[in-house]
Design brief:
mainly beta; three-stranded antiparallel β-sheet; 1 helix; 7 strands; 5% helix; 30% strand
């Protein structure tokens, strides 16, 4: 992070929040910092329509903190129970969020940057969608 510490972003299966831990060394010991939250303090990922939190990646560049994550299953990829569970969330592809320097508060709203399997038709990503699995 911009403060020289190390941050671990993780999403526990069906937990509905992006968790963050911090350490002074890359090898740990990591301490739970909290969950990614909106500027008004709401835990992001818990409301209907929020992006489904999965597979996070963070880049710090030029003093800006970028969080990327997403999920976009194809029909039949998941069992019907999980597919029904996912209907509450945005699973349209890979999203980008800029975080504040505290590494946990959202500075921008989520932006879809790579459409997923079900939303890439007719775009330049058709055939190369986010989470496209080989057949």
């Amino acid at each position: 992070g911009p403060d020289g510490r190390y941050y671990l972003y993780y999403a526990l299966n069906n937990h509905l929040a992006m968790s963050v831990a911090v350490s002074d060394t890359p090898a740990g010991k990591y301490t739970f910092l909290g969950h990614v939250k909106t500027s008004d303090g709401k835990i992001w990922g818990t409301d209907e329509g929020d992006a489904y939190v999965f597979d996070p990646g963070v880049i710090v560049e030029d003093g800006r903190v970028h969080l990327y994550m997403g999920f976009s299953p194809t029909d039949g990829m998941m069992g019907s129970d999980f597919a029904n569970f996912l209907k509450r969330w945005n699973t349209k592809g890979c999203h980008h969020i800029e975080l504040c320097d505290d590494m946990i508060t959202m500075k921008t709203e989520p932006l879809l940057v790579v459409p997923g399997c079900e939303t890439s038709k007719g775009t330049s990503f058709e055939g190369m969608a986010f989470l496209k699995l080989p057949l």
